[in-house]
Amino acid sequence: MKLRDKPRINPMYAGPEIVIPLERGEAVYVSDVFPNIDDIDISKDIELKISVKKKKRSLDANRYMWHLCGEIAMALHTTRNEVYIGAIKEAGVSELHLVMDEAVAAMIERWNQMGLGYIAEVAYKSQKNPGSTAVILWYGSSTYDTGEMSHLIDYVVGEARELGIETMTADELAELKAAWDNR
Q1: What is the pLDDT of residues 101-113, one digit of tens each?
Q2: Which residue did the predictor score with more confidence, 14 or 65?
Q3: Which of 27, 113, 116, 133 is the most buried (most CB within 10 A)?
Q4: Residue 121 pairs with which residues in a beta bridge?
């Protein structure tokens, strides 16, 4: 669904209502966003989130990153999964969360089960908030947008070059990145 203009609040009705101006012909997609709109119980709290659509990374970029992880793994006599995990921890997307001490182990276990690139570790014990621990959560690359994936690929390319592994040229990498920017 594409917006024609910014959503706004219209105070002219019985109560303030939000108006979402759509491009011509886009109203038909409202039923995709709200498939059971007639069944919504408005007596209950409803949450609606609107966010900017991110460009997804291309499968070619993902494939190339995994190829390099395999090449690095052979050079280091390890697995490509270990190389990938190392890359995620060095150049991936992460967040720091403050967690009650008694919930840390369960949180780490649940996060680590979400997929290969989902890594959770204790960062430090909070001095400001007794009984709390800071936990760092890394996201798997399947959630990355083009900029985040580009950063991860640049890191893996750098690691490969340090080991003398042949990589794409700067122009080839730029072309690979441009391919997903133009999707």
Answers
A1: 999 999 999 999 9
A2: 65
A3: 133
A4: 136
